[in-house]
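pls design
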C-alpha cells in the first residue's frame, strides 16, 4: 500500500536541499525518480515556506521502500546540517498519477 511522507525542516535553505539531492545522486541533482537510490518513490515535491521551513512531500510504494531510502538519506541530512525533523507518514487511501 502506498504511503505519503511529509517533512518540515525549520530554518533550512533551498541550497541545503539541493546539496542533499546532489549527495544522494553522486554529485548530480536528482531530476528523475529513477535516479533515487533504492527505488520505490512514486512522487516528490519540495518547497520553501515564507517562515523559512523547507517542506517535502513524497509518495512511496511502501513503508519498506521509504525505510530503505531513509537509511541513505539520514546520514546525508546530518552532513549537510539540516535540523532533525520527524516525518509524518500516512497510509494513502487513493493515489492517482499521470
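designed seq:
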Amino acid at each position: 500500500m502506498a504511503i505519503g511522507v511529509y517533512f518540515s525542516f525549520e530554518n533550512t535553505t533551498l541550497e541545503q536541499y539541493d546539496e542533499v539531492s546532489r549527495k544522494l545522486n553522486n554529485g548530480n541533482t536528482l531530476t528523475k525518480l529513477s535516479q533515487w537510490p533504492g527505488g520505490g518513490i512514486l512522487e516528490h515535491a519540495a518547497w520553501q515556506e515564507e517562515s523559512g521551513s523547507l517542506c517535502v512531500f513524497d509518495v512511496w510504494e511502501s513503508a519498506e521502500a521509504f525505510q530503505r531510502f531513509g537509511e541513505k538519506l539520514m546520514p546525508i541530512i546530518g552532513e549537510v546540517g539540516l535540523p532533525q525533523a520527524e516525518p509524518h507518514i500516512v497510509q494513502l487511501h487513493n493515489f492517482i498519477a499521470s
